[in-house]
């Protein structure tokens, strides 16, 4: 007996097929599958594509969405976000923010999140009950916060987190040193050593702004990637978010070492950081994945929108319509993310894990339908996503979340809005 049988889906570049899912995997893709299934989904007029892998986010920052708009990164962090995080970040804040952010992620077709924040046990708990995959790392900084007194304690928390979650199926631990401007060489070397010992990925921010590059150069005599390379930090286990400002030598280092780039175009635009030359990275053979960054600097977790923006930005920036075609954009937003995490998903193919979405094309803006991939990248909206399946489990069907209570969510968001605006009013931070 099959677990799920999807009937008559449009499989891009193949045709109309039935998709059979069993024990978390796609086991058959055929014109007409007759086998019985516990759950049959009619997918007439719906396109089946892999679900998205949001490879860089701070999901619980959904509770800070809409605050601190129209600032550059360092003003945004120092004048607003770090002040609010110092007051509010707690296991409860992280859990509630994760619930809101994970609901939004599922509703926009994402089944894998790579998250960096504090109290990630709370994110793990929400992800497990929501049925979504998450790579989680307890953020590591050099300066004290109410979360930890300094790098030693952050590292200890990160190590404990790895020990707790290693071997879980939906949750996998990673190490998250924040950035070369907030972590000393000693901290970065300890992270590298721990990552090698535990066999986990490292997820960090690198070369996000011009001022970061200037600051790191002033402090260490080298630009960020060269600085990291001089520490022996750059390797194929490192996922580097942003990577907007790299010189030619740095691009060659990334390629040579096999480090991955986590591109976050919308956050880079909103924080006025710049545009990463992703078309160059791709032509060099660098592995590029896509992320939204946190929902407070984007200001959403919509990977469809992110993918569309990425493709159009690269064309506009390079003045070449070939800089990023729709199929490459879709691959970066799906397959490349799963691959970077060692997960065999991201393709609608037999033997692949069943992480997929169905997109309803019976909408004026998706008709007439000629080229499903191009029309998903350039015309679709996340509200067209009808069904989401993660590891062979249906977590949204006909836009109804199966694992999260929507009413509870709205109540939680309201509760935090009141608390946070109250604090901002008291501290004269309220500007809206
Ligand atoms: C160490 S936990 C994560 C830490 O990162 C902050 N953050 C959120 N977005 C960004 C960004 O784009 N660049 C750098 N740092 C960012 C977040 O507020 C947490 O403090
Ligand atoms: Zn970030």
From TrEMBL:
Binding site for Zn(2+): 56, 58, 205, 293
Ranges for domain Amidohydrolase-related: 47-394
Record keywords, A-Z: Hydrolase, Metal-binding, Zinc
Family, as annotated: Belongs to the metallo-dependent hydrolases superfamily. MTA/SAH deaminase family.
InterPro entries recorded: Amidohydro-rel (IPR006680), Deaminase_MtaD/DadD (IPR023512), Metal-dep_hydrolase_composite (IPR011059), Metal_Hydrolase (IPR032466), MTA/SAH_deaminase (IPR050287)
Domain of life (superkingdom): Bacteria
CDD domains linked to this entry: ATZ_TRZ_like (cd01298)
GO molecular function: 5'-methylthioadenosine deaminase activity; metal ion binding; S-adenosylhomocysteine deaminase activity
Signal peptide coordinates: none
Protein name (record): 5-methylthioadenosine/S-adenosylhomocysteine deaminase
Cofactor binding annotation: Binds 1 zinc ion per subunit.
Enzyme class: hydrolase
Binding annotation for substrate: 85, 178, 208, 293
Required cofactor names: Zn(2+)
Biological role stated in the UniProt entry: Catalyzes the deamination of 5-methylthioadenosine and S-adenosyl-L-homocysteine into 5-methylthioinosine and S-inosyl-L-homocysteine, respectively. Is also able to deaminate adenosine.
Keyword hit for Zinc: yes
EC number: 3.5.4.28, 3.5.4.31
